[in-house]
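To whoever is covering the structure queue this week,

Two jobs came back overnight. Logging them here so there's a record in the thread.

Job A:
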Amino acid sequence: MEYLDGETLADYLEREKKIPSDKAIEMMKPVIGSLKNVHKHGIIHRDIAPDNVFITKRGDVKLIDFGAARYATATHSRSLTVMIKPGYSPEEQYRSRGDQGSHTDVYAVAATMYKMITGHTPPDALERRAYFENKGKDTLPPIRKYVRDIDTNVETAILNALNVRIEDRTPDMETLKIKKIDPLTWPLWAKITIPTAGVGLIVFIVLLVTGVIIPKPEVVSNEIPEGQTRVPPVISREVTDGEAALSERNLLMVIGEKVISEEISENYILTQDIDGGAVVPKNTVITVSVSSVEKTVVPNILGMELEEAKAKLEELGFAVTIEESYDSVIAEGCIITQSAEPDSELADGSEIILTVSKGKDPNQ
């Protein structure tokens, strides 16, 4: 890729904390425009977040790191590698067969803008979905909680794009229009209807103040019952990281099976038997499956001649590195030591260092 001189949006936000909404919109317009073109070719980025938005010293804003996009090069593909960034990834991205599409990137763009404007990362999508299904409420705070003077139309556009359910979410970049509405450009019907609605609003406020209308208080509780805890999503986390996240919530982790994968590095969590966001008793055991790689038993090649030992290891798929050392016992050209213990298992392509005898030290 081209050389870029500047910093990531994540670094910028670390320093500035948040960005005025008008500026945030202008900064993200090039990203939205780029994604329109990418989506036309059936490709989705799947990894949009502040650390993948780059701001050059000239002020240009660019979307980088299309590494995750190679797994979704066509709209026919419905079995995609799980890749998530909590807070920025929509809930369908937590499943390899989730219905991913342009709406997936829409969510991530909106989450990034939410972070830019409020200074806060949106709640995890799986936790939002679980709470919504159980309580009928969303845990995503409105933007105006943090920014009082946010334009209503801007807030609505971002929150629509952040809908946790696909069917309710803004479907694509063309539909994601984030701009203020100038009353002078309203159509004739709006100029007539809105003043009329304003009169109705005044009447409603009078009735409310005089006590004729008494609003029913709405209590939203996000409290978890005593002795219970909420399961964090640990899919795509490294095993020790996922275990630590579960332990923080007073949960236990057990590895149920290891699944060989050519696409995912070893020791990353692929599935969990209880979805993130679910409320369960403390000390519940969460069973996970973990990525693994093909492994081969290391043979014992100690004392062998170098060429024979090297050929045997390379035939098994290992990479061989040679070091030399004097030895008064092992004949010249034969193996003194091997870095991997005989009968241990290593992944294909692993390096094995062989120390080869140079014979007896002439200085001794």
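Job B:
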Amino acid sequence: MYATERACEKWIWTELIGFDNRDEDLGVGAYLDAAGFTPDAICLMITSPDFILSHESVDAEVALPPDFCSRDGHEFNPHRQRQVWTNRQLARLIDALHARGIDAYLTVFTRFYGAYFEDYFAAKLVEVLDYYGFDGWHGADGYGPLSGPIYEVSVSDDMVGQFASTQEVGLPDIVTRECGHDVEKLEARASWIWRHARHEWIEFYADRWARFWRKMVDALHGAGKKAVINSAWGRAPFESLYRYGVDYRRIVDTGVDGIIVETVAAGLAMDPRRGATDETRHHDFLSMLMLIKAYVPDAKLIFLHNTHDVVEEWDAIHHLPTLLEKEIYSLANVFQTGDDGTLRPCADGLLVCLGDGLDAQDWRWLRDRWSLAFSALPGRCLGATLVWSDAAMHNQVRDFTETRTWTVHRLLFHLMTRGAPVQSTVRVDHLDAASGALLVLNPHLFPAAERERVFSYEGGPIIAIGRAEGALPATDYQFEDVYPPHELCCRVY
């Protein structure tokens, strides 16, 4: 360990198969001996929501079904066969983790969705956490957002009924008529909404997810439990809102205790699906982490640290170690400039995904790289600092709908992929604390007062890239692309 290593929360996401219920301490000691460190938290992937929904708080010891004991009931990992766990053993496992000072979070995935099911779900979740002694809930895949874009994933009669109740103007029959499971009618409904009420639909979803998480957080906090949520399929703030109907600001305002940011370029590099990986993927996720921090600066962000996954059949630590090493160093060293001018890491920590089946040498390899990645904070970043505006992000929703031109995130990660040195962000209201070069993307989306603030900056040069629109000051050096309409222009001040 480097003497100057800075604070970093270290979390692990693992299945029950990572432990051994034949040991007196349920395998906790052996697991930690192999890891070589004591994590701050372990998220136990029980996988199935039936773990919550079918729970009964009984005194008897009962066996848990296979898909609770390993993800989807897979039969083995590199260390052992799937074991039959009992409710009592699981409770003892959590006690053993607590004895080592480790918080235990419950993770389940979604399998179906119901109408106003959240009230029942929240009550059952609290009951389960209390029964086993969990410290909190990790709302992973499917609990914000759903498993697809909002223009095609759920336009059921129930969902559209909820949407219609929020609209002051009536909706046409093609939307409000009963569709049931008629695919043709559902597709017509979805098409009309996305063409004619897109922004209202986005707003409805953003509010709906915020209300869901408000109920969950209130229930969990009321019981002394914590709640963390996965980012929206690894998307930056704009695409999270536009594509998935999740507004990180509204989610954070519900009081969640942290966001697990899905920085999964290493895992996707081995995904055979078309489009899963390309040359920009690393910087796509790296810049996404930066922009989420810029949008919700006070939220705890834990980056998802890809290692391997037996069920999903990828193994970054053994098959792509150099890419994984680059990820560790990069994700640990992007920053936000605070209102006092100091650099704050975008990530407060990491979540090893997944943490079962790793040998002692694997853990040693990881620890060595963490020590270097999380060494002392730099005094400053020598590259350009991106200027972030909440208002510009929200203005981008309508602008993108109308023009389909490149968003701030897309411009940023393509610049970074081509070598532009950008490792920090600053909120537009904290510009007085910034120094050095500024990068301003799509300045036409900034409100007039914010644009004036940006172009009054005297701490260094300003590079502005975006459409040649809006009231921008004259510059002696600029160049434009040749692809109309909405040509991009680069201005250097």
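Note for Job B: The chain has 19 helices and 18 strands.

Please reply-all if you pick these up so we don't duplicate work.
Q.
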